[in-house]
Amino acid sequence: MEKTKNISRRDLLKIMGVGGVALGTAGGLMATKAEAKSNLAPNIAIIGAGLGGISLSAKLIDDLPNAKINLFDADPILYYQPGFTLIAGGIYDKKDTEFQKQDLINEKVNWIKENIDLVNPDDKSLVTTSGKTYSYDYLIIATGTTYKFEEYEGLSEEIINDPQYSNIASIYTVDGSVKAHTMIQELVKNGGKAVFAEPNTPIKCGGANKKVNFLLEDLATSKNMRSKVQMHLYVGGESMLSSPVHAKMIEQFFLERKMPYSMRHLLRKVDKENKIAYFDKLMPYTENGVQKTAIEQVSVPFDYLFVIPKMITSPFIAKAGLAVTSGHVAGNWVDVDKFTLQHKKYPTIFAIGDCAGVPKGKTGASIRKQYPVIAQNILDHLNGKPLSAKFYGYTACPLLTRYGKAVMVEFNYEGVDPSMPCFGATRESWLNWFVKVYLMKAMVMKGMVFAKA
Ligand SMILES: Cc1cc2nc3c(=O)[nH]c(=O)nc-3n(C[C@H](O)[C@H](O)[C@H](O)COP(=O)(O)OP(=O)(O)OC[C@H]3O[C@@H](n4cnc5c(N)ncnc54)[C@H](O)[C@@H]3O)c2cc1C
Questions:
Q1: CA–CA separation, 168 vs 260, rounded Å?
Q2: 273-300 average pLDDT score
Q3: Which segments cross the bilayer (predicted)?
Q4: pLDDT the model gives residue 2
Q5: Where would a tag sit more exposed on the chain, N or C end, judged by fewer CB atoms within 10 A?
Q6: How does DSSP assign 320-376, residue by residue?
Q7: Whose CA is nearest to atom 23 of ligand 1?
Q8: Which atom of ligand 1 is nearest to the CA of 398?
Q9: Which residue among 46, 47, 51 has the greatest number of ligand 1 atoms within 8 angstroms of its CB, and so is best to mutate?
């Protein structure tokens, strides 16, 4: 409220501008009828009905109205995951993030409520978990990430979601986010030590845990409890984010606000009973020209633990020989060209969203740029033309830094990539908070999933 009163006329105009753009795309364009781009009738299979699979299926129906589109996914609910940090922060409720897929999937798309167990890329067929076989001309893999909480000894997704374990949560599940909110409330009421742990695998929205860490610090400060709330962020990798400029900015914020952090500390085990987290401190060194890592074990007592799981992709991807084959992510993530999103070995296979093996782009905002690219490239391929559309790695993560403030973190393969000058590349502002909290969900859930934004 206070923030609203203090808003300058210029800010208000900017908000109206951004609001107009966002609502225009979310609402206004909904009314416009998309024009077909081809009468061809390919048989397209999409595995995974998350933000990526649903948005692309809607676009393909617009562009190729005669196409047969089979969309496979057994899960009837889509959670708006960018809202999970807002649940933890007490701004959204669980129900604000919950959507029935039947309300989102275009009626011309054939939604098959089964998961895929097997892909045979050489004969272009799929097998569902119940053993039914389907063929395809084009295949789109949109299966997101698979969480591996159990790779931390003593943890599992059940424990994360179980209210009985009331001091261990993850904002990467909806129930974990609800629990995280209660934990934050307890911390600012009674004090205690909060430990935040992040893995060294690729993760979606790399800023998410930091957002919650920032909100906790801000809330504790505003409630005069900062001296009683200890916090420490342990990052398994070697930087705060995959965008170097923003990684530096985040470190700067942590230092300025006296929020301790350690990098190259990978959670290994959690002793729930004694409330101790065990980390491997990873210390790289070179011996006779060979890169090695020395490991020192570090034990950290905690009152509250906020964990991000290690992430991999659906097992069928590696089984089918579709995964990245070299480097530190070998055996995972779909091996696609980072610009065209076309599989490097199988030209009729594409990947969208978090499962794509591209160096950046594990955000919903990336999907907004990816789905028109894949739709165009399928059209080009159908017409025997070189693929013309490219994804340049756009990734966006509005970083909530305080209640009422955020930095619009936006970058691509090359560097920072602000979509509007008023957002600023590294500037904390109330405008960015407003966009994240009030506009983005509408843009995604009323626009993007219908291929209208
Ligand atoms: C805490 C948090 C905060 C975030 N904040 C932001 C943010 O601020 N901004 C932003 O842009 N993004 C944010 N994101 C990231 C964003 O939510 C994801 O990038 C996006 O939802 C990924 O969409 P997807 O379609 O790739 O995967 P998902 O939405 O995860 O969907 C994958 C689908 O595939 C299905 N599936 C899996 N395996 C199979 C199979 N074998 N067969 C059939 N179906 C299968 C699943 O059931 C699921 O429905 C955040 C995410 C989290 C968790």
A1: 20
A2: 97
A3: 12-32
A4: 33
A5: N
A6: TT-B--SSTTTTSSB-B-TTT-BBSS-TTEEE-GGGB--SS--SHHHHHHHHHHHHH
A7: 51
A8: 8
A9: 51
**72 C-beta closer than 6 A to ligand 1:** yes
Q: For 332-391, how does the pLDDT look when each residue is reduced to its tens digit (9 = 90+)?
A: 999 999 999 999 999 999 999 999 999 999 999 999 999 999 999 999 999 999 999 999
Residues 161 and 287 in one domain: yes
Within this chain, do residues 387 and 249 fall inside the same structural domain, yes or no? no
Q: Are 302 and 321 contained in the same domain?
A: no
- The answer to whether residues 393 and 359 touch, using CB atoms and an 8 Å cutoff, is yes
ipTM over 0.85: yes
Per residue in 362-377, is it b (16+ CB within 10 Å) or e — as a string? bbbbbbbbbbbbbbbb
Task: Kindly state if the Cβ of 396 falls inside 6 Å of ligand 1.
Answer: yes
| pLDDT of residue 19 exceeding 70 | no
373 ligand 1 Cβ < 6 A: no
CA of 4 to the centre of ligand 1 (A): 33
Percent of the chain with pLDDT over 70: 93
Q: Based on the domain organization, do 177 and 285 belong to the same domain? A: yes
Domain that holds residue 206: 150-310
Rounded distance from Cα 81 to ligand 1 centre (Å) = 7
Q: Mean pLDDT, the chain, as a whole number?
A: 93
Residue 107 and residue 90 in one domain: yes
Q: Which of 97, 334, 363 to mutate to test the pocket of ligand 1 (most atoms within 8 A of CB)?
A: 363
Distance from Cα 6 to the centre of ligand 1, integer Å: 36
Separation CA 381–CA 42 (nearest Å): 11
Are 169 and 301 contained in the same domain?
A: yes
Q: Six-digit token pair at 47?
A: 């595995």
* Residue 422's pLDDT band (cuts 50, 70, 90): confident
Q: Are residues 137 and 253 in the same domain?
A: no
- Is pLDDT above 90 for 310? yes
Establish whether residue 400 lines the binding site of ligand 1, counting it when its CB lies within 6 angstroms of any ligand atom: no
| Residue owning tokens 């296979």 | 349
DSSP letter assigned to residue 447: I
Ligand 1 pocket residue status of 49, Cβ below 6 Å: yes
Nearest CA to ligand 1 atom 17: 81
pLDDT digits (tens, 9 = 90+) for 183-193: 999 999 999 99
Nearest CA to ligand 1 atom 49: 50
Nearest ligand 1 atom, CA 101: 49
Give 28-86 pLDDT, tens digit per residue.
344 456 789 999 999 999 999 999 999 999 999 999 999 999 999 999 999 999 999 99
- For residues 170 and 236, membership in a common domain is answered with yes
Q: Is the CB of 220 under 6 A from ligand 1?
A: no
- Asked if residue 393 has its Cβ within 6 Å of ligand 1, the reply is no
